[in-house]
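ARCHIVE RECORD
Type: protein–small molecule complex
Small molecule: zinc ion
Source of inputs: curated submission
Record status: active
Notes field left blank by submitter.
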Amino acid sequence: MDGDQMVCRACGRTERASEGFPCERCGTFIGQLCNLAGVNGCARCVAESGAGPMGGVPRAPSASGTP
Ligand SMILES: [Zn+2]
Ligand SMILES: [Zn+2]
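STRUCTURE (tokenized, with ligand):
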């Protein structure tokens, strides 16, 4: 019975689809082992967000030039 396998987009290993989680940004599959290890996103999204644990900081407020 191995019809429940998907490739984890964080580490590239094959993990159980029913136990995995979606990437918090793009929704692709992340394996349970990676999620338990603190990985909430796929390799691409983590790289784009700068590997920050908070998942990216919104635009910093600029105190100058406000209308
Ligand atoms: Zn993984
Ligand atoms: Zn992603």
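CURATOR ANNOTATION: Residues 5-48 form one domain.
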